[in-house]
Structures are given as structure tokens and as C-alpha cells.
Amino acid sequence: MKFFISIDMEGITGLPDHTFVDSKKHNYERARRIMTNEANAIIEGLLKKGATDILVNDSHSQMNNLLVEDLHPEAMLITGGVKPYSMVQALDETYDGAIFAGYHSRAGQPGVMSHSMIFGVRNMYINDVEIGELGFNAYVAGHFGVPVIMVAGDDGACREAAALIPNITTVAVKESITRQAVKTMHPKKSHALLTEQIQKAVDNRHLVKPLIPPENPTLRIEFANYGQAEWAAIMPGCEIEPGTTIVKFEAKDILEAYRAMLVQVELAMQTTFC
């Protein structure tokens, strides 16, 4: 069996604020160790169920957070930030299931450090469905016929996953009190739970259907200010909806929509505030 793990950072056990997820802040090195151990807990569970091929894709910020020397030796790792498909790099139809770990809720929703790619995004939509990183990544998995069998993160991410994907296994390793405060499990306890629950998810994977994206999807991203929308709309094929900060792009498929989203948010970050 072959499994894909996309691991973000904001939803990792015990992490309450940006001092843990920003490489320039004092708590970051602690967070990297916890994140790596969390990946290992999932890998161990997959191996117990007979997995023969496990790929871990570092999916936070510059995407070089996991400590490769401490990662389980039976897993392969994708590390580094310049990737055409970002958080779902190398996911394809050969996988039996995808696992999203360390995930958070989308922009505008309750949850620790909730956002959608960058803090300048208010909302993202595929056609009329509001999504965040979790939903968009699940759509890409669905494009390849791969079910997302487990999501681990804060309680907000777990609620979002359950609403999108019936019968998915969710593991809330912490409960959001505010956007920058959590009630959290001890890492040793959460890691034991993750090892247990991923085995359950593997057993139940036949109950989880891939989240199939629409054909020819319309991507709409609402930015926080007009300057960000202007930058994003520089990308060919984009237009700003009149009277809004929403940038629209008509895609041929979800993969094109995903790459368009990546380009738009990178452009939007060029906005200067003065």
C-alpha cells in the first residue's frame, strides 16, 4: 500500500501562535521537533498496517521544517519551497490514500492561526464551494481518485474536514480557545493517538470517497485589500469582479486552478502598505 502525507505546522500539537511557526522566532526549533515526531507517529501506524511506500511532503511556509535526520527512515521526504504543486507535490493516482496532518481551519473561521495560504486572503471558492487549504488539497487528491482518509490538526480543521468528506477519520490534537490560544494534548499522548487513528483510517478507507472536483472550475479569491487583488489580477486570464476585491479565473481543471491560486497569492504578497 502507498500513502501520501501532507504535513502543515499550525495544527501541530501544542503550537498556539506564530512564535512556533515562524523560522525567525524563538519557539520555532521546538516546533520543528514536535512536527517531526508527529509525522513519525503517523508513519509508524501506516507501517503497522503494511504500508510499503510512504511519501511525506513538508507543507508549511518555506516547506523545509521537518528534520530529515530525525524522520522515520522508512519514509521518503519532499522538502523545499519551490514546488509546482506546493502542499500536494507528487500526489498522483498511484496512492491508496492521503493524510493531512498539522492542518488548520480556513480564513475567517474559528481556529488557531486560521488562514488560507496567506493572511491577505479572506475567502477562496471553487465554483460556489468555499474552501481553504484543506479543501483545495482534497480536490487535487480527488482529481487523481485518491481519498483523504485522515485529517489531524486543531478542532477547527477537523470540523472543516468532516463537513467536506463523509466518513473521514479526524484527530483533533488541540482545541482552539482563540486564534492564538489552545487547550492541547501532551505530544506523547497525541502521537500515540495518531498512531492508533491512522490504523483505523486505513481499515476504513473503503468508506471514504475521493472529493471529486468540478470540471472546468471557476476559481475566485477574495483578497483583504484592492492592491492585493490588482497584483493577483496581473496573471493572464484573471479579472477583478467589479466593486469587490475578488479575482476570478476560469480553469480547465482543478490542477490549473491550483497553480493559478499559487501564482495569485505570490503576486498578492508584492503589495506594499504605505
What does this structure look like?
By secondary structure, this protein is α/β, with parallel strands linked by helices. It is 30% helix and 24% strand. The strands form two sheets. The protein has a seven-stranded mixed β-sheet with strand order 3-2-1-4-7-8-9, with helices on both faces. Strands 6-5-10-12-11 form a five-stranded antiparallel β-sheet. β5 and β6 form a beta hairpin. α1 (28-48) runs parallel beside α4 (187-203). It is globular.
Supply database-style keywords.
metal ion binding; 7-stranded mixed sheet; 5-stranded antiparallel sheet; 12 strands; alpha/beta; 274 residues
Tally of helical runs: 6
Number of strands: 12
Ranges with pLDDT <50 over ≥5 residues? Answer: none
Name the shape in a single word.
Answer: globular
By secondary-structure content and strand pairing, the structural class works out as alpha/beta
As a percent range, the share of helical residues equals: 25-40%
Distance between the termini: 53 Å
Strands ordered across the widest β-sheet: 3-2-1-4-7-8-9
Strand content: 15-25%
> How many strands, what sense, and barrel or not for the largest sheet?
7 strands, mixed
Q: What is the average of the pLDDT values?
A: 97
Indicate the radius of gyration in whole angstroms: 18 Å
Q: Name the helix and strand elements from N-terminus to C-terminus, one letter apiece.
A: EHEEEEEHEHEEHEHEEH
Binding site for Zn(2+) 2: 8, 60, 104, 133
Active site: 115
Organism: Paenisporosarcina quisquiliarum
InterPro entries: DppA_N, Peptidase_M55, Peptidase_M55_sf
